[in-house]
């Protein structure tokens, strides 16, 4: 059975399409800048690709772009069904919110990018968090989240933290200054990571609270 598109659903689809394009654009610009810099100094491009995917910001923005693309794709697949599950999309919403908040509080003052780097930074740290949270609010069905989902959501940042420490130990390169073990030492790094984890859980609780509130209002959207 084909359900006819309404003006409202068509408008939402256009907005999601714009958000998806912006998400992939930010990632593409950032990848180009990293690979171009590596090429100019005759460094390994494969190493540049590994470095690109070693940032929590990049990984999370990739997940955001994938969810938005799945929303636009009509062809059914296991991947599409998985990413569009409310608890999965909501967990990604929590992560991208953390990206935006952490960048504004901890990193924005440390440098002042210009040109294409400024554009990539704005898209990944400011624009996409806001757009994806708007998508989550308007398009993801509400009323299904439970506190137990937080235990699943934190696997992602904890796994990333473990990977970042392992990679940093091997290469002496850390993606973010607040987890730089060589400069701060393990005790301070774990304190910093613990503070970020607390922030992650607080945002997760807020997301669950909003989900339950909107679910009770009966305004959740059916796919």
TrEMBL record:
Domain of life: Bacteria
Keyword Transmembrane part of the UniProt annotation: yes
InterPro entries attached to this UniProt entry: Pr6Pr-like (IPR049713)
Transmembrane segments: 15-39, 45-70, 82-106, 118-138, 150-169, 189-210
Record key words, sorted: Membrane, Transmembrane, Transmembrane helix
UniProt-recorded name of the protein: Pr6Pr family membrane protein
